[in-house]
Structure formats: structure tokens, C-alpha cells
Amino acid sequence: MKYFRLVWKNVWRKKIRTSLTILSVLVAFLLFALLSALGYAFKAGVDVADAERLVVIDKISLINPIPMSYQNRIASTPGVQSVTHASWFGGFYQEPRNQFGQFPVNPENYFDMYPEFNIPPEQLEAFKNNRTGAVVGQELATTYGWKVGDRIPIQATIWTKADGGRTWDFVLEGIFSTDDPRGSSALMLFHYDYFEEARAFGKGTVGWYVLRVANGADPVQVANAIDLQFANSPNETETSTEAAFAQSFTSQFGNIALIVTMILAAVFFTLLLVSGNTMSQSVRERISELAVLKTLGFTDRTVLGIVLSESILIMMMGGLLGLGLGWLVVQGLSKQMAAFLPGVFLSPGAMGGAVAIMIGAGILAGIFPAVKAMRLSIIDALSRA
Amino acid sequence: MSEILARLEGVSRTYKKGKESVAVLNELDLEIPQGDFLAIMGPSGSGKTTLLNLLGGLDKPTSGKVIVGDDELSSMSNSQLSSWRSSHVGFIFQFYNLLPVLNAHRNVELPLLLTDFSSKERAERASIALDIVGLAERAKHYPRELSGGQEQRVAIARAIVSDPSLLLCDEPTGDLDRDTADEILRLLQVLNRDHGKTIIMVTHDAQAAEYAKRTLHCDKGTLEAKEAA
Asked: What is the average per-residue pLDDT within B184-196?
């Protein structure tokens, strides 16, 4: 700590150069924060998945529907405690850019399957009793300013009505929330029966089934037993854990994690070159000063530590500023994108990782000039000066 | 006769220049008593600075022994020498070698960072050192705001702040005009006479050497034990 003033003064020896370097570090960590938050949104579904829930989809593709008649057969499979279903609706509210998840579900048991969703009992009851009723998550209600009793028209992009219409009208009967900060409640749920009755095609099918495994049952054996029942049928199934299902859903957008990693790798490689160059210049232009420090009795290791501390300090200043700015942007972004891409969140893990990267990058950028300073010969350096 | 502070026994120093070996010092013997003010003169390349470097633990002899106080420098490791330098010797250079990013007070305080003194103690000692060299009122000034003579005074304060017994001065007035040089040399005399510092000063300047108690002439790697008049 007693060397901090010396380190601080050395860092600001060339104010413009240091400021520009800090700016480049800031931009890199701002990007890190944004990409981490977006990456988090894409894998949030995997993180909040319940190990006791299995999802049954069509073996060929998630977009292929499964017969409604499968429900009883799945429910009677040994090890299955309860079953519900959902389907992808894919509409928008008022304008095409207002897209979010809408799912026709069975209101009688859907909330039993997802205990992490909290809804007032009287609102749930009202939802069950109104065929054209719908419930939405708090995020959606906040985004669009909806309150219970509002009429919400949704424009269909896939499911036209039997009468040729594309507008599906719902009455908002309830608003639910989730306790898990990683989970999203940017969903709209409505009656499958209303959907089934009014849609023009695809009758008698659902998108996927969700089931809860009974206590003590082996989820793998249950999944195998379900898939075996429908083997060699026109609609073979693939049963997997909810996490695997979320993973396969996310992978439809491409390998987000790989894309994020590649972008960040390129950014941080450039950052290392910039910072390393700054530190090399900084050491080169004060060879005689470093020799004087050694003459006064500063050991090789102390000189190494001072130069490395300067490099880490530059990285930390830019990094923390970038991360702070990123956090602010993510706060705004998560509100803006709550409906379209819920779960945009800068997690404590990502922030911890960013700080570790700052320290690591600081060491990497400073290690070569620091070793050069450490190995400096006092006599050579002073005679050159 | 005063106690001997520094002693060179058969010291040789040879440097490699390409494939050639250049002998800078040859079998040198020298005794420096406590409280001495010794000027070493000689032409460029005669080995004056090499001698100073050996006495300051900045360099090691090719053969022979360098003993300062109870310590044999020639057998110490680099880190031991660093530690030894921080408490036993003060260096004064021709071009002052102050750190431009620190003000006078912080420059003087620099060697004390290697001690266990608290920040308050460090500040007090740095103030005392600046007071001794007559620059207490310039403590907050940066090197660029000081004259050459003032910079050298700050460098002298830095050299004495950890209270070393030995001061090694390499052309301390080489960059100064005559009047300022005389001021610096008088200050060195005060440090020698009133504060008991043993001073070894390398100089080209015969007038500067006159401030010393004795002068030795270095030439072709040997010290001529020829006392100045």
C-alpha cells in the first residue's frame, strides 16, 4: 500500500496515453458486460430448469405438433406424477416488434406444474373460469402497462382463426410473478380450449407436453418408457429434461456462447496488444528512473511488482468503469427487451469473472515490461542515461 | 587514526567487450577511514565510477574483496546488496536523477518506503532532510519547478534521509555553474564535518576536489596514492 502513490503517479505520467488506454479497456469491458447479459438471457432457461420436470416433443422437430391423444398415455406411464401441455402461439401485440411468448395451456394444472410462478388464488380462479381469459407475467404487464380487466388483442402470425380472422381477443384475468431473479415472467398464457376451438387448422394437437416425475422415480427410465410407447408411430417422441429442452430451444438461434466467446476473445486480444504497448513504452522511457530505484535499494521483485501493479491498475480503472457503465446499460436494456428477450441480466458471476479478467489481463499486459525492468542492470541503465 | 569504514583488498574489475577483456581496475588496495571526505580524480575511463560502483554495492569485483563496515559486499547476493544499499549508503548523481512524477518531499521520502517507518515518521524524516539541505520551503515543488542546484540539494536530502554512514557522489557538481557548485560542495562539507558522513566524491573538477580532505588520482585501473596538495 505504501507504494500506491508511486504506482499512481507513474500511471498518470502521460495523461493522454493513459486516458486513451483506459478508454480502450472501458470499451472492452462495456462490451463484455453487454454480451454477458445477452448470453445470460439465452441460457437463462437452462439455468432455471427443474430437474424433476421432463419435456416431451416430436422426435423430428420441436415445431412438429404432437397428438392431444398422447396425454393420457403419458399420464399413465409408471413414474409420471402429472402432465400438462403448452403450444407456441407466436403472435404480436399491436405492432410486429411487440413480440413475446404466448402459450395456449391447460389452466387447470399449468400453475401446479410451475410452482415458481406466483399468482393470487382469486386471479387464478378467474382465469380458469373465463374461456377467453389470459394471464401475463409481471414483466409484460409492466412493459405494456396492462392491468387486470384490460382487453388484449393479439395478432396471430401462424394461427389464423377458423373464420379467417387473425385477431385473438383476450381479457386479462391475472398477473403472475416469479421469485427466481434468473427466471423470466415475460409470458402470456391463455386457454387451450379457446385456442383449439377457434383455430383454423392443427386441431387435436399440442406443441409439447410437460410432466413431473413422481418421487423416487428415475427420470431417465421414465423418459425412455414414454419414448418407447410412441416408437414406430407417426409421431415419435423425444423426452428430455427441461434443461436439455431449453438448451435445444436456445441452440435454434445458433451457438450463442461460442459467438460471444469469439467476439470477446478478439476484443481482449486487441486490448492486450494496446495495454502491453502502453506498458512497454512506459518502462522504456524511464529506464534510468527504474535504475535509480534499484540503486536506492528497491529489490528486483519490488520493481517487478511496481510495474505489474501499474498495469493492473490501468486495467482495473478502465475495466471497472466499463463494467459499471455496462451495468447501467443492461438495466435499461433489460427493461426495453423484457418482452422480446427476457432475462437480460448482468450476473454476479459475470462481474466476478470480469474482475478476474481485469487482473489476468493486467498481469499479461505488464509481465514482459515488468520482467525487463526487473532484469535491468543498474550500471548499464545509469551509464546510458 | 580513525576506524576504517571501507576497505578494498586486491580488487580487480574486468569487463567483456566483445571477445576482448578490458581491465578497468587492477589489484586495487584502499582504506577509507570513518569520517573521511575523499575526492577521486582522473581522466575518463580511468575506473573512478567503477570504483564508486563497487563501494556502493552496485557492481561486484572480478577478484578481491570490498568490505564496508562489517559487510563483505563481494560475497553478497543481489537482493542482499539491495537491502544493504537502502540502509548503509546514499548516492548523489551528476544529473540528480529525481523522479519527475514526485515532488521534492516525495522524492526524498522514496528510500524510506523500504523501511518499516509509518507514513508520519517518513514524512517527518523527509522534512528534516529537506531542512538540512535548506529546501524545506520547496518541499511541494516538482523537479521541473526547481533549479539545477535545488534539484541537487533534493538529491542530497534523498541520499541522507535514511541516515547512511557513507555518501557516494558521482560528479555531483558536473552539471552546475561555479557558484552553485560551490554551494553544493559546502553542503557536502557540512554533512561530513557536522553530521559525520563519510563522503567519496568522483570529480573531474580540481576546484571541487579542494573541498575534500584528501584526493586520490585514478589512472589506468590503479589508484595512485598521491595526496593532493
From this structure: 94
Q: Tell me the shortest Cα–Cα distance from B88 to chain A, in angstroms.
A: 10
Average pLDDT over residues A84-101: 90
ipTM of the complex: 0.92
Identify residues of A whose CB sits under 8 angstroms from chain B CBs: 2-3, 5-6, 9-10, 12-13, 288-289, 292-302, 378-379, 382, 385
Domain of residue B185: give its range: 35-60+87-224
- Residue B106 sits in a domain of what CATH number? 3.40.50.300
Please indicate whether, in this complex, the C-beta atoms of B86 and A288 are within 8 angstroms of each other.
Answer: no
Q: Residue B19: inside a domain, yes or no?
A: no
Instruction: Please count the structural domains in chain B.
Output: 1
Q: Please report whether residue B69 resides in a domain.
A: no
Q: What is the mean pLDDT of residues A329-341?
A: 74
Helix axes of A4-11 and A300-336: crossing angle, nearest 10 degrees: 70
Determine the Cα–Cα distance for residues B32 and B198; give it in Å rounded to an integer: 9
Type and span of the H or E element at B4: strand B4-17
Contacts of A285 in chain B (CB under 8 A): none
Pairwise CA distance, residues A135 & A189, whole Å: 5
Has residue B75 been placed in a domain?
no
pLDDT for A182-207, tens place per residue? Answer: 556 788 999 999 999 999 999 999 99
Q: CA distances (Å), A54 to each of A47, A213, A233, A376, B178, in order?
A: 15, 7, 20, 64, 93
Percent of chain A with pLDDT over 70: 92
